[in-house]
Request: fold
Amino acid sequence: MPATVTPGPAGGPPDPDDRYTLARGLVAAQRWAAALDAVAAGLAAAPDDPVLLGLQVRALRALGRSAQALPVAQRLWTLAPEDPYPCRLLTLVLLDLGQVDAALQAAGRAVCLDPQNGANHLALSRAWADSSRPGAVERQLASARIALQLDPSSIDAQLQLGTALAASGEVAAARAAYREVLRLEPGNAAALNNLAVLDLQAGAHRAAARTLAAALAADPQDRDAQRNLDVVAVWAVRRVGWVLLAGPLPAMLAAALGWALVGRLLAAAVLLGGPLAATRWWRGLTEGQRHHLRTLPRRIPPARWLRWPVAAALVGGAGLALVLLAPRLVAGPAGAIWALAALALALARVLAATLRRSRRAEVAGRWDRVRHR
Amino acid sequence: MELGRVLDSLRRAVEQAPDDAVLRAHLAGMLLDAGLAQEAIGHLGLLLARDPGDPDARALMRRAVAAEGGPGAGDEDGPGSFDLPPDVLGPGAGGRSTAGGEFDWGAAEQDLTAGLTHEPIATSLRLADVGGLEEVKAELEAAFLAPLRNPALRERYGATLRGGLLLYGPPGCGKTHLARAVAGELGARFIAVSLADVLSSWLGRSEGNVAELFAAARAQAPTLVFLDELDALGRSRGALGRSGSALRGVVNQLLTELDGVASRNEGVFVLAATNAPWDIDPALRRPGRLDRTLFVGPPDAPARAHILRTHLAGLPLAADVDVEALAARSAGLSGADLALACRAAAQAALREAARTADPQRSVAAADLQAALAGVAPSTAPWFATARNVVLFGDEAGAYADLATYLRSHRML
Ligand SMILES: Nc1ncnc2c1ncn2[C@@H]1O[C@H](COP(=O)(O)OP(=O)(O)O)[C@@H](O)[C@H]1O
Ligand SMILES: [Mg+2]
Reply:
C-alpha cells in the first residue's frame, strides 16, 4: 500500500494561529482559488474572522475579482474601524475599482490611525497616484518619501517612490529609485518595466527593448512589459517608414541635376542594399524581438501602424521607378509631383504623431502607463 | 429515471468506492445541478484535500460556493456604494501599531483543516493507464521504477541515478496522474507530499514536516518521494514576496534534504511536478538536486483517445460513438479538459433522459461532440507564459524540450 506520511502535531503544543495555516500558506504560495476555498470553509464556521476576511480580500484581488472583494473589505473595516489594516486593504480594492476619492479617504484614515507605519503612507501615496486632484503629484511624492523613511528596506515603498518621482518629472531620481529596487531584489520585473518606460519616454527605444526583455525573463506573465514591448515594435515599424520614404532621395537629387547614370546607380544601390540591410537588421534582433514583431498584428490591428510604412513604401518605390525608368522626367513636373506627394505624406505623419502625443498626454498614458505594484 | 434515484445510487457508489475521484466529482457535479450545493461542497472538500490542484474540483467548488451564496461568490454587480464617516480624515486614535498587517484579535474556533483528510493515493492505477506520454513513461521507468525494483541496478548505476526528476507542463495534462500511476506501480515505496500536506498536517511547522517526510523515506528505503506542485512549496524568493517568508523555511529545508539525498545515496529517489518551473527557486534545480526536467505536454491524438476511453468507461454509450474520431477533433485539449467534456456529455444525456423519461437514452456521439466543442483549451494561458519564458528567459537552454514542442506546434 502506498503511504502518505501524515505526521501529527505531536512535536509540541499547536500554534494558536493553526486554523489559519492552510489559508495563509495557500495565499503565500499564490494558490488563490484553493485559498478561497480554504477561507470559505473557515468562514462557514466563523463568518466574522478578520484574518480570514483579510486573506479573502487578498485572494479575490489577486484573481481580479475586486468587485467581490469590496463588500468583504467593507465588512472587515466595520469589524475593526480602529485598525489601519482594513483601511489599507480597502484602499487597494477601491483603487482597483477606480473609486479614487473613496480610496483617498480610506488611506487617509489608515495614516491617521497609525502614522508610524510606512505601509499606511504607501497606501496613501498609491491613492494620490491615481488621483487627478490638484496637488496630487506632490502629495504622492511626499507620502512615498515618508513611507520609505519609516520602512527603508521596503521594496514596495522604493518602487512607489520611483513612480512618484517619475510622475513629478524627476527622471534621474526616478531611475535611481528603480535601480535601488533592483539592487534590493535583482530581477524585480516592475522596476525593470518602469525603467523601460522612462527609456521609452526619452526615446531610447533600443535600451527599452532590452530592459523589457529582462522584465519578461524575470516575470514571463508581466502584461505591462509585454504591452510596452508592443510600443517598441510599433516605433520600429514607423521608423522603417521614414527610411523607405527617404531612401530614394539621393538618387532623385542626382537625376534632377541631370546626372542620369549616377541617379540610376544610386537607385540600384538602394534596391539591392535596402533588402540586404533589412535582412541584417532582422537577423540582428533577438528571437524574442522577432517573434514579437511577427505576432504584432494579432495584438494591435495593422490599420493602426501599417498604413504609414505602406504609404511610404509606395511613394519611395515610385521615386525609384522614376529614376530608373525615366530619369529625365525627374527634373520636370513628374519629379515635382513626387516631391509634393512625399512632402505631404511626411507632413501628415508628423501631424498625426503630434496629435497622438497630445491626446496621449490627456489620457495619461494609455500606452505608457507605469506599472504599479 | 428520476434524478433523486440517480443521486441515491451515485451516493451509494461513492460510499463503496471512496477513492474514486472521478465518481465523486461526478456526484458533486450532479448534486450541484440538483441544487444540493451544501452536500456537493462536502464531496469537493474531500477531492480538494487529496488533490488541491484538481481544476475540475476547484471549478465545481467555486460554483458550489457561489450557489450557496457564500462569500467570494455571486454578485458581479460592481462596486457597492461606500461611504466612510465624515470624520474620516480627522485626528484618529493614532499610535496603535499592527505589525505585518496581521490581527492580534479575533478567535475562531473552527480548525480550517477539519474535513480535509489524508487518504492514501489510489493504488489501482498503473503506467499503462496513462494515455500517451510514452517518452515520459520510459524515462520514469528507467529513472525510478527499474532501479527501485532492482537493487543490482541501484548498485551499478548509483552515480547516474543521483539527482531528482522534475515534471513540468501545462495544467491538467497528467503530471499528478502519472505520479499516481507510479505510486500504483511502487506501492508502499511511494511517498507523496503536496502543498496541502505540508501546510495542514504539521500545523504551523512546515519545515519540520519536510524533514519528517524525508526521515520516513529513508527509514523505508528504497523509496520514491513525490513533491507535487513544487512551485508552491519551493517558490523563488522573488516570486514569494514578503508574505511568503513562512514558505522560505520550507525551501531551505527542501534544499538540505535534497542535498542529503544526493550525497548519502540511501536509496531515496525524488520526483517532483509543477506547472510553473520558472517560479521555482533556482537553487532547487542545481546539479544533484532536481536537475533533470521532463516536459509533460498536452496529449496527442492516440493519447486523447485513450483518455476519452478511460472517462467514458462505465457510461451507457450509444453505438454511434467513435472515440478515435472524437480524439481527432479535440486537438489542444488537456486530459482535464477531456474529462470535463465527458462529464458534461454524460450530464446532458442524463438530463435528456430525465426530461423524456427514457431510461434507454444513452450518451450519443452528438452529446460528446457538443460537449467537446463547448470546452476551450485550458492550457492557452500557460502556453502564452511558456512562450515568453522560451523567448526571453531561457539563455541557459533549460527549456529546450519545451521550445521544441512550441516550434513543432507552431506556437513560436
Ligand atoms: N495522459 C493522461 N492519461 C489519462 N488521463 C489523463 C491524462 N492526462 C490528464 N488526464 C486526466 O486529467 C486529470 C487532470 O490531470 P492531472 O494529472 O491532475 O494534471 P496536472 O497534474 O498535470 O495538472 C487527471 O485526473 C486525469 O483524469
Ligand atoms: Mg497536478
About this structure: The longest helix of chain A spans residues 333-362.
